């Protein structure tokens, strides 16, 4: 499972940081009683919003790559160089 969010673009020290769609894998091993989060264990991924060429509804899922994906909850983000399949928590969230 992943947690995803949108990051705003910013202007920092004469450089512009592009707005992006970012996500990280959820750490299932983190106990609820632990108040500290071990940041180095997280791997953040992102794609600049301007690099997204399409967001598509999924009509057919490649079961060899994604054996447990639920088609009605999935959407595909197609960038300039790659494609990424995501599954929402419910159909309306897709």
- Mean pLDDT score: 82
Shape: elongated
Radius of gyration: 16 Å
Taken as a percent bin, the fraction of beta residues is: 35-45%
How far is the first residue's CA from the last residue's CA? Answer: 15 Å
Written as H for each helix and E for each strand, in order along the chain, the element string is EEEEEEEE
Query: Which strands sit side by side, in order, in the main sheet?
Result: 1-4-5
**Unreliable stretches:** none
Mind describing the biggest β-sheet?
A: 3 strands, antiparallel
Query: Helical amount among residues, as a percent range?
Result: under 10%
- DSSP, total strands: 8
Number of helices: 0
Give the class from helix and strand content and strand pairing: mainly beta
Q: What attributes does this structure have?
A:
94 residues, mainly beta, 3-stranded antiparallel sheet, 8 strands, 0% helix, elongated
Helix and strand layout, with pairings?
Layout: E1 2-7, E2 10-12, E3 15-17, E4 20-25, E5 44-48, E6 52-57, E7 74-79, E8 83-87
Antiparallel strand pairs: 1-4, 2-3, 4-5, 6-7, 7-8
What does this structure look like?
This protein is an all-beta fold and 94 residues long. The protein has strands at residues 2-7, 10-12, 15-17, 20-25, 44-48, 52-57, 74-79, 83-87. The model has no long low-confidence stretch (mean pLDDT 82).
Q: Concise description?
A:
This protein has 94 residues and is mainly β.
């Amino acid at each position: 499972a992943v947690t995803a969010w949108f990051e705003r673009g910013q202007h920092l020290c004469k450089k512009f940081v592009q707005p992006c769609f970012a996500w990280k894998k959820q750490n299932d091993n983190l106990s609820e009683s632990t108040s500290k989060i071990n940041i180095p264990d997280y791997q953040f991924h992102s794609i600049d919003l301007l690099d997204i060429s399409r967001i598509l509804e999924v009509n057919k899922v490649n079961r060899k790559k994604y054996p447990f994906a639920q088609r009605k909850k999935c959407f595909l983000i197609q960038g300039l160089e790659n494609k990424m399949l995501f599954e929402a928590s419910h159909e309306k969230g897709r």
